[in-house]
Amino acid sequence: MSLIPFRTKRSSGMEPANLATISDFRNEMNRLFEGFLNRPSWGASWFETAEPGTWMPAIDMQESDAEIHVRAELPGIDPKDVDVSVSEDRLLISGEKKSEAERTTDGWTHRESHYGSFSRAIPLPESVDPAKVTARYDKGVLTVELKKSPTSTSRKVPVMAK
Amino acid sequence: MVTTQSSPTPTPTPAAAPAAEPSLIYQPNVDICDLGTEVLLVLDMPGAAATSCDVSFEEGVLTVQAQVPPRQLPGRQLVQEYGIGDYRRAFRLGDGFDASLITAEYRRGVLTIHVPRLAAVQPRKIEVRPA
Questions:
Q1: Are A115 and A97 in contact (CB under 8 A)?
Q2: What CATH fold (topology level) applies to the domain B24-70+84-121?
Q3: pLDDT in tens, A104-118
Q4: What residues contact A14, with CB distance under 8 A and at least 6 apart?
Q5: What are the residue ranges spanned by the domains of chain B?
Q6: What residues in A contact B30, CB-CB < 8 Å?
Q7: Is A113 in Cβ contact with B29 (below 8 Å)?
Q8: Distance (Å) from the alpha carbon of A7 to chain B's nearest alpha carbon
Q9: Contact state of B108 with A23 under an 8 Å Cβ cutoff
Q10: A51-101+114-151 adopts what CATH topology?
């Protein structure tokens, strides 16, 4: 029996296919870290989880002087199946994603998407005017525009000296 | 059968496109359903422009790509749970599919691809006649 010499294969280790795999892995890790690190410190719990049997859409939130924009990724949903409700300091997005698979109950060999009921309660950083909320659904993305309530305008408080 | 696989081509490097900022590329989630006469690939690609969806088939690999326009909302980002980037995913098809009849439609952020089986390999019922 002869020993097989151990050696590195410089030429075969970094072929395009492997590079692509590494690139995909890096992208996925970036995505995970983005979601983890960009959570608001003022709002949602780090351990916020969906109710059993339901799922939570991923969201984006942006704030300008007068408005708050919330976007949620909801691919494949009939806009009629989405409910958006607003209180002064909370936005609730809920609904149901019906499966394309309703045409067949079996035959699914690979599933990565979420189906069924979803719900997401989003604490808002400032009070908003519930009467001035618009929501639109386009290309699988729900965008909700909320106008800040005029009464919520921040006010400078003088510090009294004794 | 259809198997998911990494894209056969590497991500474009900054050297290939020095002027453009290299954008992130995401793998869309996929559901695969075998309907007997065809296999359905259902890919979640929210935000993709319908006209940018590109489905190609070459050497047994079905590749899906789509561009997503960048965010254009004003103001300060408070929460960012998902990234914006283009989509790309590739699937290796086994034998027995008719690549010339592959069709795809994009609706509500979901790309559905129909990959029909060759008629010769489609399941069929054989009638038993009385003698």
A1: yes
A2: Immunoglobulin-like (2.60.40)
A3: 567 777 888 888 899
A4: none
A5: 24-70+84-121
A6: 110, 112-113
A7: yes
A8: 26
A9: no
A10: Immunoglobulin-like (2.60.40)
